[in-house]
């Protein structure tokens, strides 16, 4: 079936151009942020320039892999940072390669908080978080040590109230560095059980200061980060990612919808205060957690959940999680999102946009090479359409 047949006349589809604030997108197939663990000494290199430029299209939107805003932020091996001059210089070459293809490129700022191990921390310190509770044992298989083996998440240290402005400052500085590196904007990673989510979720945040307890207090850290980053680089270059209904690494909340709406209400208010919209809000659907945990999800409940958040947010809304060509078209037609981000399918199909356009067969992805260090295998060697199709059977 031709992709055009998947949408009704008059409704937007993945190939309808979209104006995202100051950015003119020529289609709505976004590269989701994807940690690939290929940086050398936390610095991206030529392989990254090739990897991202392979996935770049004129007027496309790419979001970088999670990138550390400070030296306490990492919890996976070989993750790039954007807090030293050397890192900024290295990113410039990657960004240039993407811009040469005409894409817009946002840097995802990612602090893992307690989802770390003391080997990743300066002086072997405890990772920082909103809490001193350790992530429960059932999630330990998600922790990769520098040699690629699994370990146990370390017990974190709860940030003192007076330390929080310093962490906010790291995001602000990293955003400035991102712009200096040439990125068009930043995405603040507030999802998937990492630092900001550790403040947002009442299943984790057990603080009694102004950053814990009420919704107002739990949202405070995120909102302070957004305000600081906007003050540095302007609202139109700033975006936020959340996943209120995703319970990765114990990131549960007693009222996921209420939490999502509370964040959105505050972002809407900030936009009024700034007199400008943020670039976008990016929400991950629980379907993504089901992929990690092999759990179940209810498609109807999820679609309603995402639509409620979409309708509440006053700006560009990106949805992510388990989208195919058909589901993406359907979601856009139903008004569940303005843009769709693709993760795993974009790993294995550098020319995903073209393949979607032609409704061509897709390469399957090989999960085993998602996070390996090899600069080529599973990173830049997935074939383009004119090179054939690979069929890595999903385990
Ligand atoms: C290998 C891999 C790495 C990921 N890394 C990140 C990341 O760095 N930051 C982030 O916000 N999400 C990350 N995600 C989640 C993706 O951005 C995306 O939301 C998720 O894969 C669901 O989309 P998909 O079903 O199209 O793959 C990652 C997912 C995968 C599979």
TrEMBL record:
Family assignment?
Answer: Belongs to the NADH:flavin oxidoreductase/NADH oxidase family.
Which PANTHER family does the record cross-reference, listed alphabetically? Answer: 12-OXOPHYTODIENOATE REDUCTASE 3 (PTHR22893:SF112), NADH OXIDOREDUCTASE-RELATED (PTHR22893)
Provide a Gene Ontology MF annotation, just one. 12-oxophytodienoate reductase activity
User: Per UniProt, what is the name of the gene that codes for the protein in this document?
Assistant: LOC107423912
UniProt-listed InterPro entries: Aldolase_TIM (IPR013785), OxRdtase_FMN_N (IPR001155), Oye-like (IPR045247)
Source domain of life is Eukaryota
Listed A to Z, the keywords are: Flavoprotein, FMN, NADP, Oxidoreductase
Q: Which organism is it from?
A: Ziziphus jujuba
Tell me the protein's name.
12-oxophytodienoate reductase 3
Residues annotated as domain NADH:flavin oxidoreductase/NADH oxidase N-terminal: 13-362
Name a biological process GO annotation: oxylipin biosynthetic process
**In its keyword annotation, does this UniProt entry include NADP?**
yes
In the UniProt record, does the keyword Oxidoreductase occur? yes
> What's a single GO CC term here?
peroxisome
Q: What is the lineage of its organism?
A: Eukaryota, Viridiplantae, Streptophyta, Embryophyta, Tracheophyta
Cofactor(s), by name: FMN
